[in-house]
Structures are given as structure tokens and as C-alpha cells.
Please model this.
Amino acid sequence: MYQDGNGMTLDYRLLNLLDLADAHGVRLSLPSVMGIMRAGYRSEDFETEEGVEDADIPLKSRRAILELLYRSSSEERRSAMERDSLYLLAIPENGLSESIVRNLLYPAGIRFEQIPHLEYESFKSLTGGRERIALYKKMIGAFESAGGVMVIETGKVERKKKPLSDRAMKQIENTLLSSYDDVSDFSSLEEWAEATGLDGGSLEEGLERLSMKGYLEKESGWVRKRIIPLEEAMARLDEQEDVHVPVLRSRLQGETLGEISEAQGYSRARAGQIISKAMMRLPVTHIVEARRTRRLFERYAIDVSFFEHVFLEAAEVYRFLVEKCVRGTRDKRDAYLALGPEEKKRMLEHENLMEDQRGLPVVISKNGAIELYFARRGREKKRIDLHHEGYMEFIREEFDDREQVVEALTLNQRNFEAISERLPCCIQSSKRCFRYFDFSRVLEEQDFIRELLRLEPGVYSSRIVYEGNMEYFMSLDVRDYHELHNIMRDKMEIDFVEMRRMPEFSIGVKDKFEWLLLLIGEMGPIKLDHFVEFLERKYGLHAPSTRSLIQMELSDYITPEKVLHHDFTELTPAQREFIEGILRRDIYTMDELVDANSRVEDFTHLYLNNRVLNSVGYVLSGGFVVRETYGSGEKYFRRALLAEDYYKTERSDIENTQSFWKVVQDLQRSLDLFRIGEHQYMNITVLERAGFTKDVVDEFRRRVTSHFGGGRYYTVKNVRDEVAHPLLEAGFEDIFYSRILRTGERVQFIPLAAGDILYQATERRNQTDFLMSEIDDGMEMNALLARVDEKYGIKLDFSKTIEIIKASRMYYMPEMGKIFVDKESFLERIYTERG
Model:
């Protein structure tokens, strides 16, 4: 680097472009290169054609440099940039003309590094033999200005330091101070040379001066910054005659330029100059208080009050940073996670905030306080009165030194319960019991829970679903069927499920009494006890409650012998003709028939019973009216699905039933039916004609499950890469192979929009578990997405993945774009960096 007469640091290596241009016959002038240097460009900016084309320099110069890049090799350019250019002699400060360098010295073979050893006779011989003593002296003077002086001593030529003037020394000192913050706390001389453009004696003398003034310490070729309090640094400035410290102190005490100029007798402009000059002598990394707070100051919109009450720093430190740095714009609440424990506590008090369950600062509110209580102390199921007592104790301990806050958050049990019922983090069980619940895992499992609810039409108790899958729901921390019912009601949207009063829900049933009457018509006559036992066994309905309901609401259908029967009425010829006229297809849903004949008086009671339907060749079975030759909806679906080579679903009323999809799943499990597209299925006979029997398909399934053992995750991409099997050469889409593998023994899957992630284990896993297996602590988000794509062929959605991570115990820091295994790991990383 090189400094011109105005103290501007220039990259003198760019002068070597002139040497290369002369060597290759390219027209490039010294003024044009000086202009490029003064624009702040460095030699690295012109290493490639792209760098030159993007440079904001005159077109003529840009074309010349592009031509030079074309004609010279990269090795030639690199070698040239490592030498001092002969054109250093021709820069304005050194006094030799460009014409002399280009037309005389360069053709004579004289190079900059040769000049210290070049005696006059040799110079005269190289330049044609004419007497050129004046030119020789001028060249030597230019060389001295560029860094050295010629001394001839017993036939030897040596370099000797040139004494530096006070002005030059001050300029070097200013250069070092302006680069002080860019250099490491413990650094080499080379690092200082690279940062400042100084080298040799100038650098050594400058660092020695800074050492004497207390800015740094030199240790065996290394330089260590001294870090001192702001007040001590100000006191040291008092020792420097050219720094007016009283003006600086007034500024740091909060006075305006107008107030300072009036008090000190300076103009506003002069006061500003004095302050700028003094500030230049106070590098940020030299001041201990500034080092501690600078990073947060530059990122967040922190005010002076925050500095005084949270950082416990003087207001002068804040105003010092205002002068030296650019204040951040992000909300100061976002700085909370980067603070130490005591700083956090002071911030909450000073800003009148509280910490929420995620550990983030929020405005104090009763809702927030109750939510925080449940997150920290309310994870066990208790009666609401016990939780209320726990809450009151919690706020007294949490805000023990903030009496006004405790008073504001105090509330009676009734209000506490009302708020608890509305909180998104609370789950309610029976007998007014509440507890904290993490809904994220349950919501991730919606697809699988939806499969569990694919039941025949009817009214069910959530108890039968819960108890039939208790181990699974316990793994999701759902502790009883009352909690499951509330989750289904409040958090899940399942289009075919209608939630009823605790703990019931219905599938394909609008009116419970009509449904009971249909069952009675289908099963009657049947003893009341047997009927309620059947309802409890199949639908989970509580037998005593169901018996009471039937006895109260359907007493007309109970004989004195406690037998249920449907009160059938013989059809008139016109009625028989009517029912025969509307039954044309092989199968109907009861809802479909009821809706289509809603204007017919007493249609359900009169026609939808087995006595009437049997008389016209149909049966009532499982919520369907089916032609008697099939016997049940299930048998009809099996025959329809396997009747042709291919079956395309159309989402009709019949196909939109749980019974239909249960048959589809059973046929896929038995390898009689295969899904080959979004709505397309294929019969096993198609594969058999191609030579793939059911045994071959089963062998493929077993080979894959045997290969991917140990709970390892895999996708169809991994199967294609690692398993050899003729079925893989058949050319089907991934969905075909994935659906076959889903039915394998102990095979579980995580359904994603981009495809299934398969694994073999007894426990259920979800997308959070999968992501955690692929994440390294501190990993960048984009690196995670790239890893999953490369490893599994799955393209994860960026936003959706972030939502899943945020809902888990993992922690995502958007400013860094990184994921941490948990919040503690993130905080540890932050504190380590701050330290």
C-alpha cells in the first residue's frame, strides 16, 4: 500500500499494470492508473475479466486492462504484483516523469529493485553512454522519495532509513489509529502492514509511538492492544497537546454543538472538527466499555437509558458509541437472548417486561403470566383450584422484588380458570383438571391420527380410540381419552369427524337418535342389554348412560320384556313402487338416500330398515344400502376395486367413506392392489402378466426391509441406490414402491408432500425426530435442506421446516440462519462469542 500527499491509502501494486502494459504493447497511462487507485480499487479487483467488467472506471481504461488480461498469463501477473513497479518513481510526489520511465528507463532494462545498487557509470552505460548525471540524480531523488536513499561506501550500496518529519510521523500515527479496530487484539506486524499499507521502518516507528502513548504493547514481533476504561483513555488524551479534551468531554456529557460552541467560544463547525479529531484518537477496541457493548449497540435500537440501567454503563459510553458507530435498528427486545443472567433481570425490570415460556421478553399480562406458570410448574394434571394456588405462589416468587407487578397479576380463581380455558398451551381433562401440553407433536401426527379415525359411520366415544392405541397416544403425552377428545375438538381439523359432547364424536352421522333407530332396524329385535353391550364394545359408548338414554328417548321401541324392535308398518303398493323406483344402483350411503328424499315424510323410519329393504332385494349394512347379492359394503368395494386392471377414484359419496378406504388399505396390505398415481390403482393381475407374481413383490418388500434395518431412515431414492431387484426396473413412479414398502413388517413412515420417509421400528416417529437425526449443532438451514435433498431425494419446504423446528426443543436463529440442538446450546454459543 502507499499513501499519497493527502494521506489517502492507495494500492501501489496497480502500478504494475503499467509494467505489464509496456511489456505487451498495450496502451495504458499513469494518470488513468492513478485514477483507478484513488477510486479505492485494489489489485485483487482485477484478477478476472468479470472484476474488470464490473469496475466503475473509464471505458478506455477498462478495455486496456481487459486486453492486458487476455495477453498475459495469471502466473505472469502474479509475479509482477509481487515486485515494486518502476512507475513508483513517476507518481507526482516523487518527481520523475512518466515519459522518462516508459521511454528511457524501462527499455534500458532498469527495474525498481535494481536502483539501490546502480552506480552512475552503470546507469550511463545502460541508457546509451551519454552523460546523464542530472537525470541520474533525479532518478535517485525519486527513489529516495519512494522509500530509500543511495549511499556509496567502499564500493558497496546499502539502504538507509530516511529520518521522518514530525508531520510524516503524525500521519503514520493517524493511519495506524484509523486501522486500529480492524486488527486483531493480538496480531503480527504483517497483519498491521496489511491493514494500514505501512511497512518497514514507518510501521515500526509508528507502532513504537502508539506503544509509548499506551495504545498497545510490542512483544517479540507481535503487537497486543491495550484495553482500558474510557475515563483513563480520556485522561491520556489530556497529555496530547493537539487534542482539546474539554470539548470532547462536553460532547460525551450530552451537550449539543451549539451549546459547546457557545460555552467554549468556537464556531459549530470548529467544535465539530475538534470532536472528530479527538474521536479519531479513541479506537473502539481500545475502550473496555465499548468493546463490551458495541456488538449489541450496532445491531439493536438501544437507548441511553438502556445503557445505564441494563448494562450499568455511564451515559458517556453510549454517546461515545454514537460518535464512533452506527446504531442498530432492530427492536431492543431482540437483544434479550444475547444478555447475561443479571442483565436479563435488569432489562425485564427496566422495560417493564416478563419472560414468556420460550424465554423471550414480552409485555407483562395476566394471560402471559398464567401461560408461563403452566409452562414452568403446571405440567402435571391438577384441579383448577390447585393450579390457582400454584399460580399465586409462582408470581410472588417470580416477581418477588416487583410488588406492583404482583398486584397487577393477582386474580381470583374464577378469572384464572376462564383464562386457562382459553390458553393455547393448556389442555383440559375430566373434572375440571388442567395441565400444560405441547401440541406440536400431536399436530405433526395429524395424518396418522386421521388414519386411526377412518371408522365405519357411527357415534363413537374417544375412549375406544384412545384405549385401542394407548401406547401410541402416551408417546405423544396424551394421558386420557378426555384429553384426546379436547385435542380433536380444539386443535385438529378432520373433515369427516364431527365433535359432540364429551367424550363423543360422530362419523357420517348427523342425528344420534336416527342412527340408533337405524341400528335397531338393522339388528332388532334384540335385548336392550345386548344392544348397549354391542354399542360399548364397538363404539365405546358408556353402557349405563346409553341404556338410560334409550329408556328415556326411545321407550316406544322397548317391549315390556326389555327387547328393542323397530315398529314396522306394512308398505302400501304405492310406497313399494316408490322405494323400488329410487333404488337403481348397487350401493348407496344412507346419508345420500336421506338427503335425496328429505321431502318424503318419515322417510328414514319408514323405508331404511332391513324388513323393507330385504323385500326389494337390498340390505342395510354398516351405513350402506347394498344390493343383496353383495351382502355388505365391504364385499361390494372389494369386487369393484378388483374388477378391472386399473381403478381410478373419483371421490364420489361412496368413495368418500371410511369403509371404502379401509378396503383400499386392506387390499394394498395383501398386495392385491397397488397405488400407481394420485388417484390411480392397479390390480395384481397386471404385474402377474409382466412376470411379477405376488411372491415376487413380497420378496422385494422383504429384501428392502432386511437391508434397511436398525431404525435407519430411507426413501425410495435410497432403495433404488442400494437394493438390486427386478421390480425396480419396471419403471413405476416412487409412489408405487413406497406404498408397497409401507405394508412391510414393522415398517413405519413419515408422510411428506415430497414423499414418504420410511423406517423400521416399534415406536412411532415424526418429522421432528427425522430432522433432529440430520441436524448438526449450529448447522445452517440451507445446509440442512441440501443434505436432506442429496441424501434422500426429498426437497423440504423452507418455511414449513422452520415451523417444525420452532415447535420442537430445537432452536432456530433467523439472524444467523442456523439451527441449534436446543436453546441452551444456542445461548452457550452466544456467551462464548461474547466472551
Remarks:
- Residues 149-161 have pLDDT under 50 and may be disordered.
- Residues 234-350 form one domain.
